[in-house]
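I am writing to request your help with a piece of structural work I have in hand. I set the record out below, with my sincere thanks for your time.
___
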Amino acid sequence: ILTPSYFYCTSNRDTDTQTLHAILATLDETPAWQGANIVLKPGISADGKDTFVYNRSGTPLKIDAAKQAAGFEIQDPQTAERHFRRLASSQARAGIIIQPYIKGGVEGEYSLTFFEDQCGYAIRKPIAVRGDNSRLRQVVPLADLPPKMLDFSQHAIQTMGRFYEAGAITRARVDLFLEDGVPVLCELECVDPNSNFRVLRDKPNKSSQEHQLLATIFEQYAALIINRIEAMKQMGHPE
């Protein structure tokens, strides 16, 4: 399943009269959006920075006190509108992405790193992450991933690969939630993604298998970079 998303950007906040209220009124005509709490986030962001949840339902969200204090949850429509205008008018952040709030997100997010079309390793972020410390993230053996998650991610990577020449995507990251037992794609990053290398690298008391996995990851990625450089040289690209 893909997360429903609405992308919006304005270059002039004074002349553009589109409002969050008007956008949501239209989106609410479809079941996936109707009455849902709303995520507001920049088009370009990382680790939930400048991301907010507009709580339209009034039902308490499963988030900790620190996130509450940081203003992660918005209940006032005027505050939500203000954040919408600010993010939508940011050219540097590529505008705003509006999404229905997925309850599976508070149970933790999975990040799968791929080298070309093969998954190298998986990371699980803790519950309701928003700019968390990477030390809270954990390596998940591929065999322990929820059912269908690896196959779904593999299919997403292979589908993306059809738009590029062979070997063009050396490294990618697929982020997913689990909603009622079904994998939900929230991000697929193909351009210099944060691949959570340091989660495994900095893990204390690594087993011999984990040391070997770490060495294999770096060897595999280095080989892909070398192969890609050679391929680009053959296509006439300068070094």
About this structure: The longest helix spans residues 208-234.
